[in-house]
Every structure is written in structure tokens, then in C-alpha cells.
Amino acid sequence: MSFNLLLAQSLNGLQFGVLLFLMAAGLTLVFGIMSFINLAHGALYMFGAYFAALVFAASGSFALALLAAALGVFVLAALLDAGGLAVLHKRDHLDQVLATFGMVLFSNEFVRWAWGNSPLFMDTPDALSNSVQILGFNYPAYRFAIIGVGLAVALGLYALIERTRIGMLIRAGASNREMVSALGVNIGWLNRFVFALGAGLAGLAGAMVGPILSIQPGMGEPILVLTLVVIVIGGIGSIRGAFLGALVVGVVDTLGRVLLPIWLRELFDASVANAAGPALASMLVYLLMVLVLAFKPDGLFPVKARQQ
Amino acid sequence: MSQTTLKAICAAAIATCALASTSALAQVKIGFMSTLSGPAASLGQDMYDGFMLGVEHAGGKLGGAAIEVLKEDDQLKPELGVQIVSKFIERDKVDIVTGVTFSNVMMAVAKPLADGKAVFVGSNAGPAPLAGAQCNANFFFTSWQNDMQAEVVGKYATDKGYKNVYIMAPNYQSGKDNVAGFKRYFKGGVAGEVYTTVNQPDYSAEIAQMQAAKPDALFVFYPGGMGVNFVKQMRQAGLLGQIPLLSVSTTDGSTIPALKETALGVISGTFWGPDFNNAASKKFVADFEKKYNRIPSQYAAQSYDSALLIDSALKKTGGKASDKNALAAALRAADFKSVRGNFRFNKNGFPIQDMHVFEVAKDAQGRVSLKTASTPLKDLADPYVKDCPLK
User: Contact A123/B262, CB-based, under 8 Å?
Assistant: First the structure.
């Protein structure tokens, strides 16, 4: 395989990683800071995609669609939290898994009832619908937009958590919630903000994939599984870990899909390689997770505060 | 009121109820099963809507007999399909079972259907074993044997003179069957053959590999959401229009509404398209659009045909379904006006039919739909019929 092709594939891996980061950032915040396992994170991503498709179809403005998806899911999550999810924060993880899994089933059926079984249509915004020639390959301009948005979110989150007062409170709340509330901070509202923020990011991710993926009921589940892998590999609760972990998973998954079948074809005959290649490639990130758990159970880039 | 009067009234009431239920009892019971929930539910829904439109066109009865249609959802679970079919046969005592969306469910229910000596009219799934060694004299299919749709695209690629075709499909049985069907009729060379994980969302890596191989054309089998993802991503990579995209089940009535202009120019192969110019098809399309407010898919067309087929058979038997052999013989005659034009059954119960190639294009009203491009294979029979012991 040529060097140019390898570079183009690495770019694909980076783009996929950035997309995973948008999902993982929210999940790791909620899981790491509130100790709340939210399996419905994929459902929130699905709602983001639906909101974006509907607003884009009605208004024709992609920026408005992104905003509507992120804000819409932010508000939806805040309402859900106020409407009962907050009760689950103090319960054990099994209760949280059961309740949020129920929400996944409910959400998929709700979407089916509200917008039908068939996938929704969402076009690429005109300005980004072309492809760019790099290294002799057509690379979709829209994928650069995904990378851009992802990096901007990463920087924004870093600034929010590390440089603002609210970020300081979030970090403090993660270490010792009783002490923070004793100091007069409403920890319930703080948690609600973190939960809604994470959900808003999932909504944004859903909106960003609208033009490249099929918007349909149940679209959140495959990505949720990978997102969980990302936060385990990266280290639970760490934004930095989610970012780097997402890039690792994105690149490993993409290059594995490309390189494994090529290598196998050199070792075995074509029919064996064609059958085993995709099967092995799809296992690769899980094998990576097993290795990380075996040798660094806290993840590759764990939260520093947790190591005290 | 004396006790005897009360008893008499009760007896009368019960008798009336019994009488009422006998008269309301349908003469012919039909068990319809398809996949009506989950990501593929739009296929099953199209099948049901098409079937019920066929019943409506036959005057709300089939072959003059009052009918009762029992509708069940197999949820794409083979074990649930088996339970439903057993219930149809043992408890509901249906006369005919119809529908079935997916081949894996079809393979699971084939045995209980055969053991229960049921008459079965399939309107989508057509797995190879049921066309070959496991063929059954009481099974009829108004769709196609799975390989047929890929074979016609293979023939099209040969006719176009493509020398170097790149092939992509999901890594499961249907994916491999479609690739085999394509290769059976494609005489050129293969630039590369790639199998992807089932329900993989992103194909950017595979698309880059494909570009590097510089093929004349690309053949894919990506049903449902996979097809939507793949076509969108091909369009964004700027490759649609540069590399001809030949497909099966990728741009059909279930995915085109989600793709619209994105899919323009994609080629696919099947047995029928909404622009067919025969009377039966025109009536079906016009009434389907009026009733359901969307362009009918091939899945609706197949199931519409299955209702008309059952109607024609029951006409021959005088509305009676009690004699299974007579009913099967009447079905085999296939004496109805199919939306696809010519239609007859092979000895294995699968159709011998013309297979066409379609291009995604705008129709007369400016909507994105399928336009008939050519008919590379006429009177196509499936390749497995030689293994079928039936006469």
C-alpha cells in the first residue's frame, strides 16, 4: 500500500476518532463526575440527528440545525434529569443500567412512532458537499468539518473545565460532593448542568453524522458500544483520556479494517482472508480494550485527581 | 323472573353468540408474518400495505371467499418466527401462510411449514436451499430467488464491457450469496473483493482503498441503513458519477426516500420498478400512492402480487381452501395479472421472470425514483432448481 493511501487512511481514522470523542466526552463527564452510567447516551445522539434533520429540512440552514440539535438535546436532558433521572444518581449502577436501558427501548419506539420506520433524509450543506483533492485522493470536505468541530469542542471543553469557575466546581464536585455542597454550591444543579452538557455534545455528534449516516431508529446503539470502549481505554472521567482514547480507537479501527485483510491475504488464500479479515478487524478495538484493562486498569490517560 | 326463563334467555343468548361467531367466521384464514419492528421494519410494513391493497383490489375478498388476515411481527428473530408459524398452523388453523421478510427467518420457519403441510406464499425472502434440495410442492414465491437480483447486475456489467469491477458486501450469508450471483454472470475481472462488518456505519476507509484500486465499476450489496450510509459517503467523496455504482437492495423503495438526490445515477437490479407500463402495475402504483402517500417499493409490489395470486387460486377452487393439493395446483397455475408482466412458476415454486436494471432518476413529477434502464436477462430461472427433486 502506498504511503499516500496510508496517510489518507490515517486521516479517516482521525476523523472517526474525533466523532467518537464528541460522544465519549459527554459520557465520560457524566460517568466520571456523577458516577452515573447512562446507556441512553446513544438515544440522545439519535435525538440530535433527528432534531437536526427536521430543522435542516424546515429551515435549510445547517448552522441552525446544529444549534437546534445541541440545544434541543441539552434541554431534553435537563428536563429528563428534573423529571426523575436525578433520583437515579444516588442508586447503584445496576439500577442505573436497567433504567437507562429502558429509556433506550422507549426512545427507539418513540422515534419510530413519531417519525416512522424509514430513515430520514438529510443532505450535506452545499458549502461542504464537495470533495478536496489531497495526495491524489478525493477526500470529502464535510469530513474536514467534522474534524474541525471536534477539535473546537475539545478545546472549548478543556477551557471550560480547567479555566472557568464552573469548571472548578465540576472538578471539586467530582472529588468531594459533600464538601462542595457544604460550601453553599447547589450540587443538584451542578450535576444537572454536567448531564445536560454531555447530552448536548451527544446531540451535536448526532447532528454532525446526519449527512453521512442513515438517520433511523436504533442508530445510537452501535456507536454507544464503541464510545464505552473509548472511555474505558482513555480512563473514565477524563476529558483528556476521552480525546486521546477516541483517537486511538478511531485510528486502530480504521487502519485495522484496511490493513488486516491485506496482511491476511499474503498469509492465507483469498477466501480465508476475506472471511477472517473483517471478523478480526471488528474485534481489534475490543482486544485493545482487554490489553488496556489487563495492564492499565485505570485506562491509558486516567484522571490525576483519582490517583491521590 | 323465574329461573327457567332466566335459563332460557341465557341459552338463547349463548346460542345467538355462537351463531353470530359462526357467521363472522372467515371462510379462508390467512396468516401474514413479516418483520414489522426494528431497523428493517419499513420492509415488512411495505409488504403488509401491498398485500392489503391487493386484497382491496380483489374486492375485500379473495376468490370470492371472505377472508381473515392475521398479522404477526417476527421482529427479525428466527425463533419467534417459528413460534408464530406454529401458532398459525396449530391454534389458528390458517389455510395459507404468507409474507416473511428475511432469509434467516424463512429458513427457520421452512420446517414447521413443511411439517404442518401448510400452503405458503412467500413474498420476499428466497434463500437458495428452498429453491434447491429443500424445495416444497406447497411453497410459492412471488418475489425472486435471492441470487437473481445480483445475477442481472452481473449480466449488465458484462454487457457494459466492464473489465475490472470492485466488489463490496457485508460479511454474512446474503452478502456472499449476492457476490456469488454477481460473479455467475459477470465475465470481466475483479479488482478487489471486500467484506465489511454487518451494520458498519462508516465506509471511508474502504472507499479510499477502492479508489486506489482504480476499478471500472463498483458492485455493492448494502441493504437498508448500510446502503444509506454507503451511498451518502460515496457521494461526499465525489465518486458517484466518476465510478459507476452497481447495486442490489441498496437503492430501493426503502432507502431512496432517505437518499433522494444523493442517490441519482446509482444502478440496481430487480424484477419490477414503479415506472412499469402495464395496466396492472399502473393501477397498483396509482392506488398505492393515493392510499399510502408514497411511491411503492418492490417489497409492496411483490406482496401485492401475492394477494392477487391467492385470489386467482381461490377463484379456481371455488373459494375453498380445504383441499391443500387442489389449492397448491391452483396456485401453481399463476393465473393472474402480475405487476411485472409475464409470470410463471418453476417446478421449485420460484418465478421464472425477466430481470431488469434500474437507474435512480427523477420521475415525471420530479420525485427521485427508479427508472427502468434495460432488461439484461429474460425468462431467468434460478440456478438451484436443478437440485430440486419435484417434478
Answer: yes
Which residue's entry shows cell 448531564?
A195
- Summarize pLDDT for B75-102 with one digit per residue, the tens: 889 999 999 999 999 999 999 999 999 9
CATH superfamily name and code, B148-270+358-380: Response regulator (3.40.50.2300)
- Mean pLDDT within B3-30: 56
Work out the end-to-end distance of chain B between its first and last CA atoms, rounded to an integer number of angstroms.
Answer: 69
Where does residue A172 rank: exposed (0-12), middle (13-18), buried (19+ CB within 10 A)? Answer: middle
Length of chain B in residues, anyone?
391
Q: Which fold has domain A13-307?
A: ABC transporter involved in vitamin B12 uptake, BtuC (1.10.3470)
Cα distances (Å, whole numbers) of residue B343 to B143, B149, B226, B261:
11, 16, 31, 33
Give percent of chain A with pLDDT exceeding 90. Answer: 51
Mutate which of B73, B190, B194, B232 to test chain A, going by most A C-beta atoms within 10 A? B232
CB-CB under 8 Å, B236 with A143: yes
In tens, the pLDDT along B49-76 reads: 999 999 999 999 999 899 999 999 998 8
Q: Mind giving me the DSSP string for A140-164?
A: EHHHHHHHHHHHHHHHHHHHHHHHS
Residue B333, number of CB atoms within 10 A of its CB: 13
* Three-state SS at A107: helix
Rounded average pLDDT over B4-14? 54
- Return the biggest CA–CA distance within chain A: 68
Average pLDDT score, chain B: 90
Question: Shortest Cα distance from A284 to chain B (angstroms)?
Answer: 12
Record: contact B225-A216, CB cut-off 8 A: yes
End-to-end, the C-alpha distance of chain A in Å comes to 47
Q: Taking a contact as any Cβ pair under 8 Å apart, which residues of chain A between 75 and 134 contact chain B?
A: 112, 116-121, 123-124, 129-131
Q: State whether residue A211 sits within 8 Å of chain B by CB.
A: yes
pLDDT in tens, B116-166: 999 999 999 999 999 999 999 999 999 999 999 999 999 999 999 999 999
In chain B, where the domains are located? 25-144+276-345, 148-270+358-380
Using a CB-CB distance cutoff of 8 angstroms, which residues of chain B are in contact with residue A129?
A: 235-236
Q: Which CATH superfamily is domain B25-144+276-345 in?
A: Response regulator (3.40.50.2300)
Interface check for A216 against chain B (CB to CB < 8 A): the answer is: yes
Digit-coded pLDDT (tens) for B253-298: 889 988 989 999 999 999 999 999 999 999 999 999 999 999 999 9
CB contact under 8 A, B211 and A222: no
